[in-house]
Amino acid sequence: MAAQQRKTGLGRGLGALLQQEAVESPKKQTAETPASKTPSSPAGSINFIKVDQISINPFQPRTDFDETALRELSESIEVQGLIQPITVRQVGKNEYQLISGERRLRASKLAGITEIPAYVRTANDQQMLEMALIENIQRENLNAIEIALSFQRMIEECSLKQEELGDRVSKNRSTVTNYLRLLKLPPVIQAAIRDGDLSMGHARALINVGEIEKQLFIFKEIVEKGLSVRKAEQLVREVQQAKDKKQKGKKEAALNFQYQKIEDDLASKFATRVKLNVKSTKGKGAIEIPFNSEDDLSRILELLDW
Q1: How far apart are CA 132 and CA 208, in angstroms?
Q2: Which of 1, 47, 57, 263: CA 20 to 30 A from 195?
Q3: Does the record carry Nucleotide-binding as a key word (predicted)?
């Protein structure tokens, strides 16, 4: 089945990688749609391909598909047909491998469709991985952990820097960094984000807490008390302030110990009580050496080589 081709721009990201040509697709495809007579589809074309000739993309980053949403899409396809073609690469005669569009493929199978429109592309494994990841990040409703894992795979397996990754997915570096930092959270918190029990706003508050024990404490408070993002951020500030206060107390205690030792050493040297008057946290102050008589003063001055 042929169709008039026309060019369209998809912007940055997947469109730039695929350089794909969109075509007008029929309003509805059914199980009775006749099979394409073309045994081999040229790269860059669009064809109706039998769903049983398409294997799943092994690089698909998404593993969880909402069954309710899938059924809704399937019912829409039954009525309207598949409006947006999937993208595949040809790996043999009448054999194709999915690059992007697994949700559409699954829904089409549920609808009983035997053939669906597909763009045919030429891509190596790394290009397939990058295209699949970008397609999912930009178009699918991935949870934050799935996005973070996709970012990590693009950095590690596609040898991208964070700036390059940001350009690919049209996100700034700080956004990419925040997603990647989610993967440093304890597994129980990552699972809560993945399952939708913890929002991205809550997660951003937690990643600013350094210690795992404190992250788990705040996470427990959020879940048990149903804290809003604002309340969670306030709790994080309180925990951090308590930490800073404790550290300040330890520092002051350490300084007090050091000052006491200096006083003791000076008292031993001058054989009289010596007092350090520290007037600020910056270490400013004075040394007081009392004397009982002129002779005692002369003795102290001799010790000072006066």
Answers
A1: 31
A2: 57
A3: no
* Strand duo 115-121 + 275-278: pairing: unpaired
CB 168 within 8 A of CB 158: no
Q: What is the largest CA-CA distance in the chain?
A: 120
| Segments making up each domain of the chain, as ranges | 1-124
Residue type, 91: V
Active centre residues (catalytic): 102
SS3 95: strand
As assigned by CATH, the class of the 1-124 domain is alpha beta
The 10s digit of each residue's pLDDT in 198-226 is: 998 999 899 888 788 889 999 999 999 99
**Sole residue written with tokens 């035997």:** 114
- Flag whether the pTM goes above 0.85: no
Residue-by-residue DSSP string for 61-77 = ------HHHHHHHHHHH
11-25, 69-83, 255-269, 286-300: which is most confident: 69-83
